[in-house]
Amino acid sequence: MNFSKKNHEHKNSNVNNVSKNVILSVAIIMALGFTSCKNETKQDTKTTTTEASKDIAMADVSFGVRGNCGMCKSTIEKAANGVEGVSNAIWDVDKKKMEVSFDDSKTDEMAIHNAIAASGYDTEKVTGDLEAYEGLPGCCKYDHEMAMNKSSN
C-alpha cells in the first residue's frame, strides 16, 4: 500500500510540473507576441518620419533640351531618370522642354544637365558630348542652333 501511495504522489508531482511548464510556455509566447507588436508600431512611426523628410527635399525644375523625335525623348528621359535622386523626368518633343522632379538632398540640377549632355544632347547649361552626339541615329541629329524651352508649339 505504501508503494501505491508513493506512485500516486509521484504522478501528481509530474502533473503539477507539466502544468507549470505549460503555463510558463504560454506566458512566454504571449510576452513575445506583445513585444513584437510593440516593435512593429515603432517601425511604422520611423517610416512615416522618413517619408515626410523626403517630401521636404523634393525639387522641380524645367529647362530646355535640344532633340527631334521620340527616340530622342526616350534617350533624354532615360539619362535624366538614371541620375540618383530623380523621381520623374519628362521631355516635351515639341517644346524642347524638360521637366524634372528630384530629391535635392541626393542630387542637383547640374548633375541632371550633365547626364543629358553625356548622352549627346545640348541643354540650356551644358553642351552635349560630341562623341555621343555622333553615335545618335540620323533622326536624332538635331540642329545645334534650334530654340529650346519654347512656351508654345
Descriptive tags:
rod-shaped; 4 helices; alpha+beta; 54% helix; 2 domains; single chain; Alpha-Beta Plaits
Q: N- to C-terminal separation?
A: 110 Å
**What fold name stands as the CATH topology of the largest domain?**
Alpha-Beta Plaits
H/E order of the elements?
Answer: HEHEEHH
Domain count, please report it. Answer: 2
% residues in beta strands: 5-15%
Strand order of the largest sheet: 1-3-2
Supply the CATH architecture of the largest domain: 2-Layer Sandwich
Find the count of extended strands (DSSP E, 2+ residues).
3
Structural class: alpha+beta
- The value of Rg in angstroms is 34 Å
SSE topology sketch:
Layout: H1 2-56, E1 58-64, H2 70-81, E2 86-92, E3 97-103, H3 109-118, H4 130-134
Antiparallel strand pairs: 1-3, 2-3
Structural summary, described in words:
Mean pLDDT is 80; it is low at 38-50. The relative contact order is 0.13. This protein has four helices and three strands. The termini are far apart. With 153 residues, it is α+β, with helices and mostly antiparallel strands. The protein folds into two domains: 1-56; 57-140, 2-Layer Sandwich (Alpha-Beta Plaits), CATH 3.30.70. A hairpin with a 4-residue loop joins strand 2 and strand 3 (97-103). Helix 2 (70-81) crosses helix 3 (109-118). A three-stranded antiparallel β-sheet has the order 1-3-2.
Please give a quick description of this structure:
The chain is of the alpha+beta class. The chain contains 4 helices and 3 strands; from the N terminus they run αβαββαα. It has helices at residues 2-56, 70-81, 109-118, 130-134; strands at 58-64, 86-92, 97-103.
